[in-house]
Amino acid sequence: MDQILKTEKLCKSFSNGGVQQHVIKNLDLEIMEGDFTVIMGASGSGKSTLLYALSGMDKPSMGKIFFGNKEIEDLTNDQLAVFRRGNCGFVFQSVYLLENQTVLDNVLTGALIVQKNSPELVAKAQDLLTKVGIGKDMWNKYPNQLSGGEAQRVGIVRAVINDPKILFADEPTGQLNSSAGKDVLDIMTEIHKNGQSIVMVTHDLKTALRGTRILFLRDGNIVGEYRMAPYGTDDMKERRSGLQRFLDEMGW
Hints:
Elements: E1 3-16, E2 19-32, E3 36-41, H1 47-54, E4 62-67, E5 70-71, H2 77-87, E6 88-91, H3 103-114, H4 118-131, H5 148-160, E7 166-170, H6 178-193, E8 197-201, H7 205-208, E9 213-218, E10 221-227, H8 236-250
Parallel strand pairs: 3-8, 3-9, 6-7, 7-8
Antiparallel strand pairs: 1-2, 1-4, 4-5, 9-10
Helix pairs in contact: 3-4, 3-5, 5-6
């Protein structure tokens, strides 16, 4: 597998009442193409902060971030916006669909900025929505007419329509019931199976089981790593017990 993202001595600090709070500390990390990387750790360990720095949504305080061969930490905000649109997809705990736009328009709004061929893009959006269970009868609905699970599936389509090099996900099932959460994880597992690289933050064991590489973050540093086969290709009981042992060793 090829390396797709790398950090060198990555640091992120915040000022809190005049005191510097160091959230990410001299972190070196490589993300390989095709991996489903899951970042875990206790609350406050820096998981989401790291995700936002890796994706260019937040600038680090120090250090370097290489996306492929491109160094991104010194890009301007406008340059970062262009970079993210072409290289990154995002799935958040809250979906943030535009309330005044239909399902189809929500998927297409950002995509049309990157891909100019409107007819082909519309057909692609419709095909992707159908594949995640959002049928034609729902394309003209508005976000307030969707369930939480349906909205998150629309969010996933919006995130992958530009064929991002990495899909970043921050607690994607955090606000869903168990059934809707499983549906969303099944979709993410399927797109990973089709070659999508994913970096996901979660505190949930069931969600983490979908990954192939688990990184454990403590006090802004990666203190442990655990590898698993692609989901569904191994014994689930052994998969769960192995991950649980690793997390216990990490003090999760």
